[in-house]
Design a protein that fits this description.
The strands form three sheets. This protein has a seven-stranded mixed sheet, sandwiched between helices. It has a four-stranded antiparallel sheet with strand order 9-10-13-12. It has a two-stranded parallel ribbon with strand order 1-11. 41% of the residues lie in helices and 15% in strands. It folds into two domains: 121 residues, Aspartate Aminotransferase, domain 1 (Alpha-Beta Complex); 238 residues, Aspartate Aminotransferase, domain 2 (3-Layer(aba) Sandwich). The radius of gyration is 20 Å and the shape is globular. The chain starts with 11 loop residues before the first helix and ends with a helix. It is an alpha/beta fold. Bound molecules: 4'-deoxy-4'-aminopyridoxal-5'-phosphate and glutamine. 4'-deoxy-4'-aminopyridoxal-5'-phosphate (PMP) binds next to helix 4. Its cofactor is pyridoxal 5'-phosphate.
């Protein structure tokens, strides 16, 4: 029989969520909030659904949302963006990544990525025929080595893919690190694909710095955002891409043949949401910082080696101090089955030879859920 391609792996989020459901476990694995985002934003979507039209909206996205994305780029980062030619709406950041990688990467192109990697990066790059040049950062410091980074770039480099704030590391890149990356992009004439879905989930007075704002980067950077993260509405799958027309054009071509468009009512509501007052954005990060502290201090009390978290809604913890004599994968399985708490093994975010004693917990959950998870773990350990 004709063989079927089996090269695509099962994502760790699917693996762990399935196991969590099977065992009635508290799911701190897959990253999603357990409380829906702002009611006014949801109401706006409901009204837009009733009022219609409910037909294909424009391929590039509803004008109101493209305008709102351009306005947010100005408001938060002082970036001047032409909403007509430099903004594309996609069905989630995931579609954006697929459109970008399939349109910009050709077989044999090298692409620099930093491990740990968000789940879809490597499968998409490799399916496009790209050659991944991996630069590794490891817990607990996630320090980026300048020489290793430089060594990953060459004349064959087409692009670097950067996730900042970084999932699962919860690392926020410093201006110095970003400067290094920008310099290499300019020197090797490489593009930068910036997954910035956690741009507003950043803690302790840190500032999100889009790589696009660094010298020489405006014309060579593709910046991705997601309403799923910014409005705690992950099921909506509304993403947006900002890039110079020369880069955005081929990406929009890929979008034509992938989804063509994204539900109009959701786009209209996200346009409204992006214009929300500063207090909304401060509240999002402030609430999550408290949850981070709640979970992190609880895990530390139980003996986990908690790794600092500067952004995202994930905290990584070292299980080595618990003395369980098992790998992160085994511990995540046992924790789900025996303790009723699910986390994700950090080794799943590396392309082999990974650190094997770190697990990732999502803390975008109600306080009572975080407390229950900690109580269950206390009984189990
Ligand atoms: N990139 C990163 C780093 C993510 O964590 C996620 C979602 N968890 C995505 C992309 C995908 O975002 P979306 O749900 O908008 O497709
Ligand atoms: N981004 C989420 C996470 O890191 C999961 C999204 C998904 O399941 N694809 O957990």
């Amino acid at each position: 029989t004709n063989p079927v391609y089996t090269g695509l792996p099962t994502t760790i989020f699917e693996v762990m969520s399935r196991l969590a459901i099977e065992h009635g476990s508290i799911n701190l694995g897959q990253g999603f909030p357990d409380v829906d985002g702002p009611e006014d934003v949801r109401r706006m979507a409901a009204e837009a659904l009733i009022a219609g039209p409910n037909q294909y909206p424009p391929m590039m996205g509803v004008p109101a949302l493209r305008q709102a994305v351009a306005a947010a780029n100005k408001r938060f980062y002082d970036l001047d963006v032409d909403w007509k030619t430099e903004v594309l709406v996609t069905s989630g950041a995931t579609e954006a990544l697929a459109d970008i990688i399939t349109s910009l990467i050709e077989p044999g192109d090298e692409i620099v990525l930093i491990e740990p990697l968000y789940d879809c990066y490597l499968p998409l790059v490799r399916r496009a025929g790209g050659i991944a040049k991996l630069v590794r950062v490891t817990p607990p410091h996630w320090k980026l080595d300048a020489d290793e980074l430089a060594a990953a770039f060459s004349d064959k480099t087409k692009a670097v893919l950067l996730n900042n704030p970084m999932n699962p590391a919860a690392k926020v890149f410093t201006r110095e690190e970003l400067g290094l990356i920008a310099e290499l992009c300019v020197r090797f004439d490489a593009y930068a694909i910036c997954d910035e879905v956690y741009e507003h989930i950043i803690f302790d007075d840190r500032e999100h710095i889009p790589l696009m704002t660094l010298p020489g980067m405006r014309e060579r950077t593709v910046r991705i955002g997601s309403a799923g993260k910014t409005f705690s509405l992950t099921g909506w799958k509304v993403g947006y891409v900002t890039a110079t027309p020369r880069l955005l054009d081929p990406i929009a071509k890929a979008h034509q043949f992938t989804t063509f468009t994204t539900p109009a009512a959701l786009q209209t509501a996200v346009a409204y949401g992006l214009a929300k007052e500063d207090a909304y954005y401060a509240g999002l990060a402030g609430d999550l910082a408290k949850k981070r502290d709640r979970l992190a201090s609880g895990l530390a009390r139980l003996g986990f080696g908690v790794v600092p978290c500067d952004g995202t809604y994930f905290v990584t913890a070292d299980i080595a101090p618990l003395g369980l004599a098992a790998s992160d994968v085994e511990v995540c399985q046992r924790m789900t089955v025996e303790a009723g708490v699910t986390a994700v093994p950090v080794s799943a975010f590396y392309d082999g030879n990974a650190p094997s004693t770190f697990v990732r917990f999502c803390f975008s959950k109600q306080d009572s859920i975080l407390d229950s998870a900690l109580e269950r773990l206390a009984t189990w350990i």
